[in-house]
Amino acid sequence: MSRARRLASAGPTGFDGAPLWLRWRATISKLLRYGAVSVVCTVLSVSALAALVWAAAIPVAWANLAVVTVMILPSFILSKRWVWPHRGNRHRAAELIPFAVASVLAVTMSTVGVHLVGGWTSGWARSSRTAVVVLTDLGIFGWFSSCSTTRSCFVARAGPRDGW
Fold it and tell me: Which of 10, 30, 46, 99 could form a disulfide with 153 if both were Cys (CB 3.0 to 4.6 A apart)?
C-alpha cells in the first residue's frame, strides 16, 4: 500500500488532507519543545536572580534587569533553532525585532514589579526576601507569556508576495 493511501485511510483529516492524529502529534511535540526551552531559560534566569538577590550584590531591580537582558539572546536562539525552525525566506531581523520588543516589555514589567517588592521586603530575612522576589519575577513572566506568544515572531505572515 502506498504512503498516500495509508495516510488517507488513517482516519479523519484536516483541510490540508493530513490525518488529524499526525497534526496533533506535531503540535504536542512543538509544545513540549517550547516548554523545554522555557524551563531551561527560566531555571538559568531565576538561579542567577536568586544568587544576586541573596548576595545583595546589587539592588534587586538592577539584578533583574541584568539577568533578563542577558537571557534574551539565548532564549531567542533556543526558540528559533529548536521550536520554530526557519522556513521560507523571512529575514532574521523580522524575527528578532518582535521577540526583542516583547522581551523588553517583559523586562520592564518584571523590573518594576521586582523593584516594588524588593523595597517592600527590604527588612525581611535574606531567604524570605529572595523567595518573594523570585516568585514575583516568575509570576510576572508567567502572566506576560500567557498574554503573548513567541510564535508570532517566528511564523511568516502571508503577504502580497505569497499570493494573498
Answer: 99
pLDDT in the model for residue 115: 92
The span from the CA of 93 to the CA of 153, in Å, is 10
Query: How many residues are listed for the chain in this entry?
Result: 164
One-letter amino acid for residue 140 of the chain: I
Q: Indicate the domain borders of the chain.
A: 15-162
CA distance 153 to 97: 8
Collect all residues with Cβ–Cβ distance below 8 Å to 19 and sequence separation of at least 6. Answer: 7, 10, 11, 12, 13
* pLDDT single digits (tens) 88-98: 666 777 777 78
Q: Which residues of 76-93 are buried (b: 16+ CB within 10 A; e: fewer)?
A: bebbbeebbeeeeeeeee
Closest to 22 measured CA to CA, from 7, 35, 32, 5: 7
CB 19 within 8 A of CB 10: yes
> Distance between CA atoms of 35 and 161, rounded to whole angstroms?
33
- List, for residues 96-130, the tens digit of each pLDDT value: 778 778 888 888 888 899 999 999 999 999 899 99
Helix axes 126-147, 20-55, angle to 10 degrees: 150
